[in-house]
Task: inverse folding
């Protein structure tokens, strides 16, 4: 195991992991008290299994077609009571198939032109993901783990909704939030997405995911917001630090290749960046698909980082200036909360009166499940924000108001 200092002001111990060919998460552990967060692996760019996938799809489609043909031959003729044929009936008017307001159909028609497929090649291989158009001249938001392969001399090609393509370059990357911005070259007049506000989301709210799962561009799925503020660890194991964020959980189908694409509300506003999934298998070599546990970076966080990248700045992150670990009870069992370890001199944590051994259980109204839970919660804020920490000390519960520090900008590689 290696101890990795977290730039949000905490320190965690991580097991080194091998690169994953596709997203794969372990099973949730145990029952009773919530377990420490199992870091979901990012839904990485689709790897070079195109021919296999295409063959499977071709076989499946052929099977469906064969069944349809069999039914057409063996099924009895439809009964017509007036002597007319459906083949000669008037074609339905466009009004009868218009997208109902607020429907998935309307959202798809509105948002798909602002979603792109991103194809990447680099010294470590190639893959594909998804991106969100930010500006008419080709600025595109995506995940860091989608484009990082091209960071050292690789190539990026963007496929637009109308079938046209363009080369692209990396504007900037932030491994700590798994956010990146790229620039498509020689384009204009693109349809840019509308960014919403993720802080106003509610559990049960309807959402739509759009992307290129397994390279199938412009795929649309739908579901609901299943939970908020899930501590999610994503991105490549080779990145500096660890991408931990307070994830939006959704049951909308998200698969490898969806990474970097939008999660949108029924008004068509982007409220998250689809980034990670959890699969039923715990094997890191299993390229499993969706089981209804997908996670997105809140757009409030992604927008703040993207703005800094677009302005040529190093992204900054909030911190309280303490190291933490998962809290344990007297029997050595993991329990709720993050136990404070070392406290940096002059940090926000020291000024708030935190002491080593305190167990932080809430950040504002967000319950802290463990060390990663605290990191995720703090990373959802910006430097200078004021938060209230609820903590336990010697069996007593207390609160401290904290103005969050900044890490001053962390290098993107």
Result:
């Amino acid at each position: 195991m290696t101890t990795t200092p977290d730039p949000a002001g905490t320190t965690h111990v991580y097991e080194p992991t091998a690169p994953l060919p596709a997203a794969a998460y372990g099973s949730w552990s145990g029952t009773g008290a919530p377990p420490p967060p199992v870091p979901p692996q990012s839904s990485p760019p689709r790897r070079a299994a195109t021919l296999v996938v295409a063959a499977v799809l071709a076989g499946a489609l052929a099977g469906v077609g064969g069944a349809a043909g069999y039914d057409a031959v063996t099924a009895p003729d439809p009964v017509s009571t007036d002597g007319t044929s459906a083949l000669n009936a008037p074609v339905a008017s466009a009004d009868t198939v218009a997208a109902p307001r607020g429907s998935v159909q309307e959202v798809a028609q509105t948002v798909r032109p602002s979603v792109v497929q991103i194809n990447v090649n680099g010294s470590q291989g190639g893959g594909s993901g998804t991106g969100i158009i930010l500006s008419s001249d080709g600025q595109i938001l995506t995940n860091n783990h989608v484009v990082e392969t091209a960071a050292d001399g690789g190539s990026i090609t963007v496929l637009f909704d109308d079938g046209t393509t363009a080369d692209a370059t990396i504007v900037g990357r932030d491994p700590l939030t798994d956010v990146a911005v790229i620039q498509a070259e020689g384009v204009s007049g693109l349809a840019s997405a509308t960014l919403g506000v993720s802080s106003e989301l509610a559990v049960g709210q309807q959402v739509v995911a759009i992307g290129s799962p397994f390279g199938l561009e412009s795929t649309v799925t739908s579901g609901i917001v299943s939970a908020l503020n899930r501590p999610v660890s994503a991105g490549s194991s080779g990145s500096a630090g660890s991408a931990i964020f307070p994830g939006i959980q959704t049951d909308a189908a998200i698969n490898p290749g969806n990474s970097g694409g939008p999660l949108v509300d029924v008004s068509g506003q982007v409220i998250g960046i689809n980034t990670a999934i959890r699969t039923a298998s715990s094997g890191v070599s299993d390229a499993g698909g969706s089981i209804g546990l997908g996670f997105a970076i809140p757009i409030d966080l992604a927008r703040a980082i993207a703005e800094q990248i677009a302005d040529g700045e190093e992204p900054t992150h909030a911190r309280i200036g303490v190291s933490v670990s998962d809290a344990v009870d007297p029997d050595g069992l993991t329990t709720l909360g993050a136990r404070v370890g070392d406290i940096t001199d002059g940090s926000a944590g020291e000024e708030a009166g935190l002491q080593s051994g305190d167990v932080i259980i809430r950040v504002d109204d967000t319950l802290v499940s463990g060390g990663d839970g605290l990191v995720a919660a703090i990373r959802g804020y910006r430097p200078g924000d004021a938060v209230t920490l609820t903590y336990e000390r010697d069996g007593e519960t207390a609160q401290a108001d904290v103005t969050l520090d900044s890490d001053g900008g962390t290098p993107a590689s």
